[in-house]
Specification:
heterodimer, A: mainly alpha, B: alpha+beta, 4-stranded mixed beta sheet, elongated
């Protein structure tokens, strides 16, 4: 670029100059700002240190106040607690006594009740057994009577049946015995009777007819 | 005619025998009187021949050509009027038994001594077979039946027999 136009060189120079000026200005401004900031920060620090100190003092105060109050509260609490404990202990003791008494009373009452209920139960059981016994004996007597009656009826019916059968059989025999006998005699005698025997029997029949004067 | 019948009935005891013998007699007399060819006729049985031979010649003289048939028809009529005793017996008697029975009946129920009337002929038997009699006999006379057999005896003593059987029943 040996031969740049002069305007451009001028422009470049101007711009460079402006830039430098601006830079320097900015530098000083910043420095000023920095110093102001530094001052501010220093004041802020001081204030904060003051505040801190105040706070420390307040804190100390508060802590001491609180310790005192705490101690006071603790003592009060202890006292109240102690009294409360005592009261509670007394009430517990009295309650315990009452409870013991109550339990003893309950025990007595339950013993009495138990005894009474036992007596009642025993009595009821005895009554029950007695009734059961009576009813059982009544039932057994009734059952025995019924059984006896039914057995007697059965026996009577059986006897009657036997008698009926016997009578029927005898009647059958009565009706048939002569036929059986005739048949038997027919079979036996007609084979075993000789001609002479037959003739003798015929002669007997004829004699009988003569005696009765059947043939006149 | 009664004499002829009496002679015939002398040893004829049953009605069936009587009828049979009358037939034999008739045949024999007709053969002898009228000379029928014997070869064509049936020969009588030996018993019948024996009976015919037992008849006396005088008996046969009662018959001649004129009266034979008349006598025979009268004999038939008279036979039907003869008294017959029906006997029911339990067996079938043979001829000998029949004779014995007949003799016994005539002896037992004998007619009065010979009278002047010749109308009393001996009793004739009519034998019938009835096995239900068991033994003994039942008789029918003049239309009346009476049982004299063992069966009747059992029926009469039925109750006694039943009572004796009942002793064995419990």
């Amino acid at each position: 670029m040996p031969y740049l136009p002069n305007s451009i060189t001028i422009i470049l120079g101007i711009s460079t100059l402006i830039t430098v000026i601006l830079y320097i200005r900015e530098y000083f401004l910043r420095k000023k700002d920095a110093s102001s900031l530094q001052k501010i920060s220093i004041s802020t620090k001081q204030k904060s240190i003051q505040l801190l100190n105040a706070a420390e003092m307040a804190e100390t105060q508060i802590i001491s106040d609180s310790n005192y109050i705490t101690q006071k509260l603790i003592s009060e609490y202890k006292t109240q607690l102690q009294s409360l404990i005592e009261t509670s202990g007394k009430s517990i003791t009295s309650s315990q006594d009452q409870l013991i008494k109550f339990i003893a009373n309950l025990q007595t009452r339950s013993d009495t009740l138990e005894k009474t209920s036992k007596d009642i139960t025993e009595k009821k059981i005895n009554d029950l057994f007695e009734r059961l016994e009576n009813r059982l004996s009544d039932f057994l007597i009734q059952a025995e009577n019924k059984t006896t009656t039914s057995l007697e009826l059965e026996l009577k019916a059986s006897r009657e049946l036997i008698e009926t059968y016997k009578t029927q059989q005898l009647k059958l025999i009565d009706e048939n015995i002569l036929a059986m006998m005739e048949q038997t005699l027919n079979i036996v005698l007609s084979k075993k009777l000789s001609l002479n025997d037959q003739l003798d029997l015929i002669y007997e029949s004829l004699e009988k007819a003569k005696l009765e004067k059947f043939i006149v | 005619m009664n004499e002829i019948l009496n002679i015939i009935l002398k040893d004829t005891y049953s009605l069936s025998d009587l009828k049979h013998r009358l037939n034999i007699l008739k045949t024999y007399i007709v053969q002898n009187l009228f000379g029928v060819d014997q070869s064509t006729q049936k020969q009588p049985a030996e018993t019948d021949l024996a009976w015919l031979k037992s008849l006396s010649p005088a008996f046969f003289q009662n018959f001649n050509k004129d009266n034979t048939y008349q006598l025979m028809s009268e004999l038939d009529k008279t036979i039907n009027q003869l008294k017959t005793l029906t006997i029911y017996v339990a067996f079938e008697p043979d001829s000998y038994s029949l004779i014995l029975m007949g003799k016994y009946v005539r002896k037992t129920f004998s007619q009065p001594e010979k009278t002047t009337s010749s109308t009393n002929f001996p009793i004739l038997l009519d034998i019938k077979y009835d096995p239900s009699q068991i033994a003994g006999c039942a008789l029918v006379w003049n239309g009346i039946y009476k049982d004299f057999s063992l069966r009747s005896g059992i029926l009469d003593k039925r109750q006694l027999i039943l009572d004796s059987f009942k002793k064995y029943l419990r």
